[in-house]
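Two quick folds needed for the group meeting slides. Do the first one here.
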Amino acid sequence: MTPYEIIYKKRNGGELSAAEIKWFIASYTSGAMPDYQTSALLMAIFLKGMTPQETTELAMAMMNSGKVFDLSDIPGIKVDKHSTGGVGDKVSIILAPMVAAAGVPVPMVSGRGLGHTGGTLDKLESIPGFRTNLSYDEFRHTLARIGLAMMGQTPDLAPADKKLYALRDVTATVDCIPLIAASIMSKKLAEGADGLVLDVKTGSGAFMQKQQEALDLTRTMTAIGQGMGKKMKALITDMNQPLGRAVGNALEIEECVDCLKGKGPDDLMELTYALGAEMLVMGERAGDAESGKRILEQIVSSGQGLEKFREMVAAHGGEVKVADDYKKVLPQAKHVIEAKAEISGYINSMDNREVGMAGVFLGCGRLKMDDVIDPSAGFIFERRIGDQVKAGETMAKVLYNDEQKGQEAVRRLVKCISISENKPEVVKLIKEII
C-alpha cells in the first residue's frame, strides 16, 4: 500500500478496505505518514463520505491505536453516556452518581470544553482537589470500589483520534459525520463499557444544528456501536437554549448538587431521568424506561444519589463538603450584574451558540486548549424561551471578576435573546428516541 493509492481511491469515491484503513491509521499514529497526505485523505472523506462499514472500520482502527480498557472482571453491565455537547449541559455529573447508586457501573471518560460548549472535566475540576487525570489502574480501582469513575482521555487512549482531531481542526474537516462518529465512538469504545446511551443535541447551541443532521449522526454512531457488539440507545434532544439555569463551571456544580437534592430545574431533571432510565434498562436494573425513571426518582428523594456523589468526589480527591455547603467550597465571582430586557414581550428564541461564546469571553471556556478558565464566572438564567418579560426586568445574572468582560458579556447576552409580542410554541426537549 501507498498513501497515494488510498487517497486516489477515496478521492474518486471508492470504498476503502479494512486493511487500507488500518494501515493508514497505524502509519499516521506512528508518525510514518506526513500531515499533508493525511489532510488529503481527510478532505477526500469530507467530500466523498464513507460507507457504514468504512466508518465502523475507521472507528475500530482508531480505538485500537492505543490501549483498550478491559473491565470484564468488574461485576455488572458497564454503561456510559455521551453527549455531543452544548451550553449548560451538566447531565453527566448528576446522572453518573444516580445510575451507580442504582447498581449499574458507570465508566466515564469525558472531555474539556472547546469553543462554545462546556466540558465535564472543567466543571468537576472547579471542586477543590478533584482529580480527573486518573491512571488506568486508578480508574479501574475507583470503578470497582464505588461503581463509577470519571476521567479525561489519557495519552494512550485512542491516540489516533487526538492526532486526527487536531489536524481536522485546522483543515476545515471537523463537521463531517463519518469523522465525527468515528472520533466519538473510538474513545467511548476504548473505555471498556458494555453499552452506551447517546444524547445527540440539535439546535442553535449544538454542533448538529439541523435535526436531520443529528439523526444521521445518531444512526451512524449507533451502527458503529452495534457493529462492535455493544448495546446502544440514543436520544435526540433540543439545544436551542441552555440546559438548566446555570452556565459556568462552578455554577453548574452548584446546580448539580441542587438536582441531587431534588431541587433541580425541570428541563435538566427531565433529560437526566430519561437518559438515566435508559442506562438502567441497558444495565438490566429496570424492565423499561418508566420503571427506570421511578427508581432514579427514589434514589434522589432518599438521598442515595447525593451520597454517591460524595463518594465520587472523595474518591477523586475532591472536597466532599461541596455536597453540603457549596458556596463555602466552590470559587465565587466577586461581582454580579443583570442582563435586562430592553422591550416587553415573550422570549421567542436564543442564539444559544452565541450564549456559549459570551460565556467563553467571560472566562467559562476556551478557544484554545491552553486558555485559562475562570471557574467562578458564568450566567444564571431567570427567564426561558416562552416566558413573559417586561422592559427592565432581569433575564439573566452575569457573575464575573473582570469588569470589562462582565459588561461586554451583558451586552452579548441581551443581543442573543430575541423578544416578540406573541408567545412561541413550546419546543419538546426530547425530540426522538432511537
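Then this one, please, same format:
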Amino acid sequence: MNSLNYASLFQLTLPETILEVFSLLILLVDLGFLRKSAQSTRMTAACVLGVIGSLAAAICLVCCPQFTSNTAALVSSPIVVAAQIGILLLTALVLLLSFKARFSRNPGEFVTVVLLATTGMLLVTAARDLLLIFIALELLSLSLYILTAFSKSSAQSAEAALKYCLFGGMSAALMLFGFTYLYGLTGSTNLAEIAASLATQGVTPLLIVALVMVAAGLGFKVAAVPFHLWAPDTYQGAPAPVTALIASGSKVASFAVLVAVTTAVVPAAASSQASSQGASWTVLLLTMAAASILLGNLAALVQTSVRRLLAYSAIAHAGYMLLGIAANTPQSGTAVLYYALTYALTTIGAFGVIAIVERTTGSDNLDAFAGLSRRNPLLAGTMLVFLLSLAGIPPLVGFWAKFNLFAAVLRAPSTTVWGLGFVAAALAASAVSLYYYLQVLKRIYVLKPTNEEPLEVSPLELATLVLITAAVVALGLFPAALASWIPLG
C-alpha cells in the first residue's frame, strides 16, 4: 500500500520534480561552466534552461495528466492541471522577458529561485491539506522575498523586500493560527474532512476567529484590503521581472487555494449550521472585496508611478475575483481561474513594457512614457492592448474575463441578496479604472517625447511582447478557446 501511495505521489509531483532538476542544472552550468563568462552569456544560458524546464513540466502535464492519482494531500483534477499549466507558461514568459535584465551579478541563482517559486505555486494549486498548503505557501513566499531583494544596488529593492517579508511573516503566523483552530474544531487537516465535519457543527466564536485568521493570511497573498500594504512598495521596488512573477503566477496559485479553502469552510450541506458558516465566510470575502475595489481604484487615480498604479490596479482586480469566490459555485470558480490567468498574462506584458522604458529612461513615472508611440510604435501598441484589456474594453480578453465573472456571480443561488448590488458597483469601478489607464495612454500617444531618439528593444523582448499581445487579442476574439480548456471545478 505504501509503495502505491509513493508511486501516486511521485506521479502527482513529476512537474515539480522536473523544475527541481532544472534548478540544479542551472546552478551547475552557471557556477561550474560559465562562472567566468560574460554576464549576458550567463543570464541567457540560465533563462534558456529555465524556459526549457518550465515548458517540459507543462508538456508533462499535458501529455500525462494523472486525474485519478489523487492522495489525501494532493489532487490532480482537470481544473488544477489547467491552473498549473497556466502558471508554467506564465513563468516561461517572465523568463523570456528577463534575458536583458542586469539587476544582479548572479543570474543562475536568480533563475533557480524563480523555478523554486514556481514549484511552490504548483504545490499550492494542488494542495488539499492545511499543512501542505502552509508549507507550499511558505516556499512560494520565501522565494519571492529573496527575488524582491535581488537588486543589491537598489535601496528601493531592499526596502520593498523588508516590508514584504515583515508583512508576510505576520500573515503567515495568523494563517497558521487559523489552521490550528480549524484542526482543533474538526480533528483533521484534510480539506474534504474539514468540510464534512463543519457541515455538522454550528457557528462558534472559535470558528469565527479561525475564519478571520485564515482570511487574513490568504488575503495577504492576493493583496486584498486591508492586507495590501506590502503591494505598492513591492511592485515599485522589486526588479521588473520579479514584479511580473508576483502579479501573475503567484496570483493564480493564491486564488486557486482560496477557492479550495472556500469550498471546505462553506459546507455544501443544506443545514442551518452550514448556512451560518457560509454566511460568516461570505461576509468576510465580500468585505475584503468591496474595500479592495474601492481603495484600489481610488488610490490608482493619484499615482505618478506606473508600477504603483498597476499595484493598486491589482488590488482592485483582486476585489473583483473575491466576488467570484464568495459566490462559491463551480461556474464562479472556473470564472475566477479564467480571470486570474488572463489578468496574469496581460500584466506580464505590461511589466515587460515598463522594464524596457525603465532601462532606457531610468524611471517608471508617467512622464517617462511621454511620446513612446513616436519612439517605438510597436512597443506603444502592445501597451495600448494591455491597458485596454485590463480596463475590460471589448473585444480584448479582459472584457470576457469580467463578463464571465460577473455573470457567474449573478447566476449563483447564494447571491440573490447581494449579487446585483456588488456587480453594479464593480462595473462602476471598472469605468473609474479606465480613466487612470487612459492617463498612461495619454502620455504614450498625445504628449511629445523629451528624447526624440528611437527606443531600441531587443528582438526577443519585442517578439515576446508581440506574442502576448496576439494572445490577448486572439483570446478576446475567440473567448471560447480558453473557456473550453478550463473545465468546471
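Slide caption for protein two: The CA atoms of residues 406 and 427 lie 9 Å apart.
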